[in-house]
Amino acid sequence: MKYRVNKDYLLDMLNLLLTTPSPSGFCHNIMAKIEKKSIDLGYSFERTKKGCGIITVLGKNADHTIGLSAHVDTLGAMVRAIKSSGTIRFTPIGGYMMSTVEGEYCKIHTRSGKIFDGTVLTTKPSVHVYSEAKSQKREEENMEVRIDELLESEDDVKALGIAPGDYISFDSRTTIMENGFIKSRHLDDKAGVAALFGLLELLKSQNITPKNNLRIFISTYEEVGHGSSYIPKDIDELIAIDMGAMGDDLNCKENQVSICAKDSSGPYDYHIVSRLVDIANKNKIDYAVDVYPNYASDVSAALGGGNDIRGALIGPGVHASHSMERTHIDGILNTIQLLARYVSE
Ligand SMILES: [Zn+2]
C-alpha cells in the first residue's frame, strides 16, 4: 500500500526552497522560511548554535530516536577581490566545475542587505575579441562576475557597497515540467529537504504517529563538509536524505529512490540498508542500490564528528549533479514512501 502524498504541497515547498538563495553559510533567510513552514504544519522548530534546524516529532516509543537529515545549503561563490576593470573575482563555495557556472546569472548580496545582479563569465568572454576565448581554461583565476551596473573602475564597485566576503548566489533556473521532470540547480539537496516536508505534511494530515521519536535535521554547511558534524545526542540512527548519484555504472534513474550502500566515506550501516531494501521490495517502491564513487553525506559528517550512530543515505536520483541538475517528481515521491514506511513500521 502506498501513502497519499500531498503533491501540491510538495511542489510548492520545493519551488520555495529552490528559488531562495542559500549558499553554504548564507542560510539565515531560507531557514526563516523553513521555520515558518514547520510552524505552519504544527511542529516546533529549534536551531543549533551554528544555524542548523531541528524539528521533533514524538513517536510511540520514546526510547529510540531516528534522525532524518537533509541539507538546505547549496553551491555558490563569494567575492574574493574587486578588479580594476570593475568586475568581481570570486572564490567558489562547494565543489563544482567552473564550466557549469559559466554564463549563469547571479546575485551579489552585500552585507548591508543590497542585492545586485550579475553574470558569471570568463575573463575572455567574446569570440569576436579574444582568439583564446574557446581554449581558455575554465578555472577560478580565469572567471569573473560582470555586474549589471554602469561601472568603470574598482572604486565604482566599492561605491555600490560591494566588498570582499559578500556572497554570490547563482540563478537556480527552476523549471517544474508537466511531465514530472524538475530541472533546477540545487536539487542537491533541496529535493531532499522538500521530501522531508512532504513526509512531515503526510504524518500531520493523516494523523500518523511514527513508531520512534523523529528528529528532522536541516543542515546548513553540508557542501563544505561539516553539515551534521553535530547532531542531537539522543539520535540513535541517522538517515541522510540527499541526491542519488546517476551515471557511469550506477543504476539509479531520476524517478527512483536511490539507496546508497557505500560512498567515498565508506559503507553505510548494513542493517539499515537491508531494511530499506526490504521495505522497498515489499511495498513496490521503485529503487536502486548504488555505490557512489565521489560522495560524502551528512551521515559521513556526523560519523566524522564522533557520533555513535548507525547511518544510511537515500534520495531521489539527480542527473548532472553540481551542474544543470534534473530529477523527477516520482523520485521524490518514492523517497517519501520509503521514509514513511521506515518510520511507521
Ligand atoms: Zn548534497
Q: Note the run of SSEs as H and E.
A: HHEEEEEEEEHEEEHEEEEEHEHEEH
Percent helix: 25-40%
Shape summary? globular
Q: Do you know the CATH topology of the largest domain?
A: Aminopeptidase
Bound molecules: zinc ion
Distance from N terminus to C terminus (CA atoms, Å) equals 13 Å
Note down, in words, how this protein is organized:
α1 packs antiparallel against α4 (187-205) and α4 crosses α7. The model has no long low-confidence stretch (mean pLDDT 97). The chain is globular, with a radius of gyration of 21 Å. It is of the alpha+beta class and 345 residues long. The relative contact order is 0.20. 25% of the residues lie in helices and 29% in strands. The chain has 2 domains: 7-74 and 186-344, 3-Layer(aba) Sandwich (Aminopeptidase), CATH 3.40.630.10; 76-170, Elongation Factor Tu (Ef-tu), domain 3. The protein contains 7 helices and 19 strands. The longest helix has 19 residues, at 187-205. A hairpin with a 5-residue loop joins β6 and β7 (115-122). Strands 1, 2, 3, 12, 13, 14, 15, 16, 17 and 18 form a 10-stranded mixed beta sheet that branches. Strands 5-4-9-6-7-8 form a 6-stranded antiparallel beta sheet. Residues 71, 188-189, 222, 242-243 line the site of zinc ion (ZN). Zinc ion (ZN) binds next to α4.
